[in-house]
Amino acid sequence: MRAGYLGPKATFTDIAVQNAFPDVERIAYTTIPDCFKAVKNKEVDMAIVPFENALEGSVHLTTDYLFHETNPPIRAEIIVPIQQHLMVHPMQYNKWNEVERILSHPHALAQCHKFLHQQFRGVTLEQMTSTAAAAKYVSEHPESNMAAIANELAAEKYNLQIVKENIHDYDFNHTRFIVLAHNDTEILPSLTSTYEKTTIMVTLPSDRAGSLHQVLSAFAWRKINLSKIESRPLKTGLGHYFFMIDINQTYEDQLVKNAIEEIESLGCQVKILGSYFSYHTQK
């Protein structure tokens, strides 16, 4: 089995893969679109990408690729606790509080906004494709006085020194990662799940008042619990959106099927991304 993930090695996505699929061959890709392409073309058996962070919300690139592209279904989600640390090259350790640049993924920078504003106001913040990419870059440029925000595994992998631990703004910092695969996947048995969910994307009929209310009512009167609803631009003009909805039941439930049939009868377009179990890891 081959698993493609957002790399390089030691990203939080890499940690999610190691926790859920310790025996698979891990293939690192530079970007989220590269991961989607790899699993779509069957270069890998599965792709694992970040989907949503508890502090910063959805990863929009993932959401848009799920909607606009044809992909294999979501087979599982893995929820991983996130701890962000500030790290520097050992050669710069004595000057870490005078860093000129801080590098990380945009979500990581946002998760640490308060710390950065209070401790490094005016310091240049540079966005990278992942937290591990930032750590790798810092390790390759020992002469530059800069820092990365990444996890403990990245510090170990790229021989960096952590100078400030747990710099994220809020304690409850978790990220959802989704597993896309053409076939069912086997999660490590030690990771247990207590519920199954279904994710759909809905496009409303044009210029019809109350359409979203009717969509939500189809679930409400059947007492189907929704854990998330989010809008994203359709990219066809201002005011045009699609809606991503998480349903806390499996699609095989007849009530869920009936609700989706009712929504479609209203003229909505529905894209079912998958029914899958949610798993939590401890690290």
From TrEMBL:
Residues annotated as signal peptide: none
Keywords: Amino-acid biosynthesis, Aromatic amino acid biosynthesis, Lyase, Phenylalanine biosynthesis
GO cellular component: cytoplasm
UniProt domain Prephenate dehydratase: residue ranges: 2-182
Pfam families: ACT, PDT
Key word Translocase present: no
Enzyme type, top EC level: lyase
Organism domain of life: Bacteria
Catalyses which reaction(s): prephenate + H(+) = 3-phenylpyruvate + CO2 + H2O
Gene3D superfamilies: 3.30.70.260, Periplasmic binding protein-like II
This enzyme's EC code(s): 4.2.1.51
Listed name of the protein: Prephenate dehydratase
Gene behind the chain: pheA
